[in-house]
Amino acid sequence: MSLTVLKAGMQTTLQGAPFTGHRHIGMPAAGSADCLSLALANFLVGKSFGEIALEITLTDAIFGMDEPCSIGVVGGAEYVRINGKDRPQHQTLNVEAGDQLHIGPSRPGCRTYLAMSADINTDQLLGGRSTYLAAGLGGYHGRALQTEDVTTFSNNGTFLVGDRTTPPHLRPHYSNSHVLRITAGPEATKGHESALDCLCQRSYTAGVRANRMGIALEGDPLPADETANMQSAAVFPGTIQIPPDGQPFLLGPDAQTTGGYPRIAQVIRADRHLIGQLSAGSKIQFVRTTSERATEIYQEKLSLLSSWLGQIVLW
To answer: Which CATH class is domain 177-309?
Structure first.
């Protein structure tokens, strides 16, 4: 069984759970940029939250199926069409051999996830299967899919599953305006308190310098000392740094493991999946919370999601 890429779109990759336990050798987390949308799509086809799916970025993509399969689509896609007929997101859909699947561009939002009941064959390393583009590792030969690529499936997967529909109250709202809750970063108390205050008092826009590694934020520059470059220290997806020009930089799933700019804030774990839906022009308001409250928010979110998805983690 296989899927043929008829139109690859801007950047379509195979993504699932992040790589874990390897940051000491410089291996970033990678994995899906929006883990909540991935989990919801996977559940529609009877899979665990971190299984591999197609992550489709910004533009539309078209695929051809050569065998029957159940699919689930969740994300910012403007439309989902099978053989030209509109079909819903958040619902198990069955496709037949020869069907053509068209995933529309993300409007609003940035990414859409296409999960399939069949198990997608991928390259594997360090116990992970997701694509890390910067090093050409994992996924489909370490790269984004291209038109005429054929992704194959193992014989171990289930080709058709029962119908599922995501409850309305659990469906993410995709928007061009976002509120991201943050906690103070390690350098926020080392001469950068005013920068953290300013970050929360102002609104920012996701700039055009954006990819899976991070997003340059546009707005009034934060107070920054041009000579304040520090020794490299650990950074993570969701870390917000201040370069010398004062324009904050928000790290994404493929972010490096260390950085030399002050780390003034960290997006809380419960909100980190929203970074994957930021596109150029998205408006962002940061709201500060405490580490203790961030833990409570995360547990509350997991409790809500587990009523539908069962055991799940967000990264």
So the answer is: mainly beta
Per-residue pLDDT for the chain (315 aa), expressed as one digit of tens each? 789 999 999 999 999 999 999 999 999 999 999 999 999 999 999 999 999 999 999 999 999 999 899 999 999 999 999 999 999 999 999 999 999 999 999 999 999 999 999 999 999 988 899 999 999 999 999 999 999 999 999 876 566 788 999 999 999 999 999 999 999 999 987 766 789 999 999 999 999 999 999 999 999 999 876 545 688 999 999 999 999 999 999 999 999 999 999 999 999 999 999 999 999 999 999 999 999 999 999 999 999 999 999 999 999
- Residues 121 and 30 sit within 8 Å (Cβ to Cβ): no
Q: Are 178 and 250 in contact (CB under 8 A)?
A: no
Q: How far apart are CA 275 and CA 272, in angstroms?
A: 6
Domain boundaries, the chain: 2-170, 177-309
